[in-house]
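Run log // design_07
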């Protein structure tokens, strides 16, 4: 496979753009014969939208929370998997010792099984809101005090962009999710959950500890401007 890739790259392509930050992961961790690629390799940084500060403020206002209140966002990506996580979060939330000024917003995703959506909606009240999706998830995370989610690429990059404290439960049948979460946890306030952490006592404890954490003042340790950097790189090549 690598021989075919190398042959195609060297024959037909002008460069390789890697949507990653080499601080976190380099191409040679997944491609062993990097030295045989004769064309330039350029790391663009990761690709993600960033929070809209006006929407961040609006989300906080709409939450009805005091400045000291806590907004928790829990999501399951598209919803194909993750119902178990969201069910555990809803039950744990009700056991929090300081849930009085705390709001939980749960996003099921469009593809969650109907019976699981029905179960989650049965727990909805003035402090637990169940929705299918939001049009600006990254800005919502910018307003949140804690994100609890799966470990998909888009969600993970949104967490980094929003600089939000997070609890991440990687999908056990996807090695990439756990590997990415383990690497990301060195650069952002992320705690990785195992299956055993979803029991009521442990998850409640994780949530309470996480809500005591504060965002770092200088959050950007990773390059997340891959879209802009790619455009600038292409412009530069055209000028050359």
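design_07 sequence
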């Amino acid at each position: 496979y690598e021989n075919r890739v190398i042959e195609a790259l060297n024959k037909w392509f002008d460069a390789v753009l890697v949507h990653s930050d080499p601080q976190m992961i380099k191409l040679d961790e997944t491609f062993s014969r990097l030295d045989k690629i004769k064309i330039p390799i350029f790391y663009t940084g990761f690709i993600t939208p960033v929070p809209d500060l006006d929407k961040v403020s609006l989300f906080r206002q709409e939450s009805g929370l005091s400045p000291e209140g806590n907004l928790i966002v829990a999501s399951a990506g598209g919803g194909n998997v993750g119902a178990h996580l969201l069910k555990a979060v809803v039950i744990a939330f009700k056991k929090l010792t300081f849930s009085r000024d705390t709001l939980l917003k749960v996003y099921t995703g469009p593809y969650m099984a109907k019976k699981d959506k029905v179960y989650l909606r049965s727990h909805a009240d003035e402090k637990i809101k169940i929705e299918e999706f939001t049009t600006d998830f990254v800005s919502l995370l910018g307003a949140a005090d804690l994100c609890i989610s799966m470990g998909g690429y888009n969600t993970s990059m949104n967490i980094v962009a929003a600089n939000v404290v997070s609890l991440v439960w990687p999908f056990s049948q996807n090695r990439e999710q756990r590997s990415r979460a383990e690497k990301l946890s060195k650069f952002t306030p992320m705690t990785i959950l195992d299956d055993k952490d979803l029991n009521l006592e442990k998850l409640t404890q994780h949530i309470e500890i996480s809500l005591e954490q504060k965002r770092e003042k200088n959050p950007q340790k990773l390059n997340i401007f891959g879209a802009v950097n790619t455009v600038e790189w292409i412009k530069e090549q055209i000028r050359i």
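The CA atoms of residues 103 and 168 lie 19 Å apart.
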